[in-house]
Design a protein that fits this description.
Structural class: alpha/beta
Strand content: 15-25%
Number of helices: 11
Largest sheet: 6 strands, antiparallel
Bound molecules: flavin-adenine dinucleotide, protoporphyrin IX containing FE
Length: 417
């Protein structure tokens, strides 16, 4: 809760900070990495830095949190904090890192806003920072202790047991534990961070969703090669797909992630496009292992059947469920060799299929796809709280939804990547 002294100061300065927060975030990262280049080795994702998406996500989240403090002080933006905390712990973040961020963020605020940052303004924003930081530190401490690990013990080595070409661009890795220690369980829908050594000697972490239910010995994930087209090719996805082979060792974090299967016994609808099918595959596999009798509806969009990753696993899993159905949309064709319930040509149109009442919805795919599907669901009367989504990158959407809900609040992130 923000103090009475700071609230009017934050209200008065939120528009100025909001307007400049992306520039603040940009200078903050530059200054922090100049002072602490080690943070770029194994912690920060340099692809997201180059694209500017992490800067926008950080800026949007701080603006959303400050807006929430002044507009809806009784409601903590829990989804926003949970998403960040899970990402942080999947990278082994430590509480002392928050002092480093504090120092450089406040340097950047003064650098951008200059004389407007009076001692009173600095103290009020300091309070916002530490309220957010302690909320995150506490959640992160809880996540580490629930899994029985410390920041430096989230990592473990796994041996690649199988590597399978799914589509022209997607490869599935199955890795096996290398010692007798118990494999920590995952919740359906969670991801691991894979940390690899790049050819220039720098470690780079990336998240990959688990695509199979736990069996106590293995983990499975699928990687899509990112083609740069006019930009550089994705460095980790290409390295994994091209150079990592059966017998190699991969360093991976424990599973984390806040978008997990609802276990309240409601029907579930999974809606994905392209590689966004991976968390759905993991959740469907868990439902099969649990012997679920719930109505499960799977909707997937892809350019063609041959580019639908994990299609055999998913269709086999859905067919083995007593109450499952699967519907596909292909941009280039309207035919399927798989035992699906319906196949459609073109972009996904949820109006073409029946959806169960009272379902929990999970979305994953490119941001414009998820935004269109979410709008269509809301149009059909699905409550917003029943729709969860996973973003394969820093979430530029959630902070925006929050700042939209807080009238008069500073602008956060743009709505698409
Ligand atoms: C929760 C979560 C789950 C995920 N699950 C999966 C999954 O199951 N499967 C999967 O395949 N992926 C998944 N991802 C995405 C994955 O983590 C990586 O982001 C993806 O593999 C790309 O990583 P990369 O290193 O290959 O690309 P990067 O090298 O990080 O590049 C990313 C983008 O930045 C651009 N870029 C890089 N350098 C520059 C530059 N200097 N200038 C301009 N642009 C640049 C690239 O062209 C590319 O478009 C997930 C992500 C998250 C957050
Ligand atoms: C109050 C302080 C902080 C805020 C508000 C914050 C906010 C965020 C946000 C919004 C994301 C993106 C989450 C997502 O959608 O995936 C993120 C990711 C991340 N944060 Fe923080 N963070 C804070 C502190 C820190 C600290 C102290 C560090 C370490 C020095 C750190 C390192 C990271 C890293 C490495 C990522 C992943 C980056 C990426 O994948 O590009 N953060 N943080």
């Amino acid at each position: 809760m923000l103090s009475d002294r700071s609230r009017p100061v934050i209200e008065a300065t939120l528009p100025a900070v909001g307007e400049n927060i992306q520039e603040i975030a940009r200078r903050f990262y530059q200054h922090m990495f100049d002072a602490h280049p080690e943070l770029l080795d194994g912690l920060f994702n340099r692809g997201n830095q180059a694209e500017g998406t992490q800067q926008v996500a950080l800026a949007g989240s701080v603006a959303a949190f400050a807006s929430a403090l002044v507009q809806t002080p009784e409601q903590v933006p829990e989804r926003l904090l949970a998403r960040i905390a899970h990402k942080h712990v999947s990278l082994g973040l430590r509480p002392e890192h928050y002092d480093i961020v504090h120092e450089h963020l406040f340097w950047a605020i003064v650098d951008v806003l200059g004389d407007a940052v009076t001692p009173e303004v600095a103290a009020a924003w300091d309070e916002v920072y530490w309220l957010m930081a302690y909320a995150l530190i506490n959640q992160e401490r809880g996540l580490y202790s629930a899994r029985g690990v410390r920041p430096d013990t989230v990592w473990r080595d796994w041996r690649v047991e199988d590597k399978r070409q799914e589509t022209a661009d997607v490869v599935t890795f199955r890795v096996k534990r290398m010692d007798d220690r118990l494999v920590k369980t995952s919740l359906p829908g969670q991801y691991v961070t894979v940390k690899v050594l790049m050819p220039d000697g720098v470690h780079q972490p990336r998240q990959y969703s688990l695509t199979r239910a736990d069996d106590g010995e293995h983990r499975q994930f699928s990687v899509k090669r990112v083609h740069g087209n006019d930009k550089p090719d994705g460095e980790v996805s290409n390295l994994l797909v091209q150079t990592v082979d059966v017998g190699d060792v991969l360093t991976m974090s424990l599973p984390f992630g806040d978008v997990v299967l609802d276990d309240s016994g409601r029907p579930v609808v999974f809606i994905s496009a392209g590689i966004g099918v991976t968390p759905m595959a993991g959740m469907i596999s868990h439902l099969v292992h649990a012997g679920s009798h719930l109505p499960i509806t799977v909707l997937h969009a892809d350019s063609a059947e041959k580019s639908f990753p994990l299609r055999r696993q998913i269709v086999d899993d859905v067919r083995s469920l007593p109450n499952g159905s699967v519907h596909v949309w292909y941009e280039q064709e309207a035919a399927s060799d798989l035992p699906v319930d319906s196949v459609h040509n073109g972009m996904m149109d949820i109006g073409q299929v029946d959806l169960p009442d009272g379902a929990a919805y999970y979305l994953c795919g490119p941001l414009p796809f998820m935004q269109a599907v979410r709008s269509a669901l809301i149009e059909r009367g699905v409550p917003a709280r029943d729709i969860q989504y996973e973003v394969f990158g820093p979430d530029l959407w959630q902070a925006d939804l929050l700042t939209e809900r807080a009238p008069g609040a500073a602008a956060g992130a743009p709505t698409s990547a």
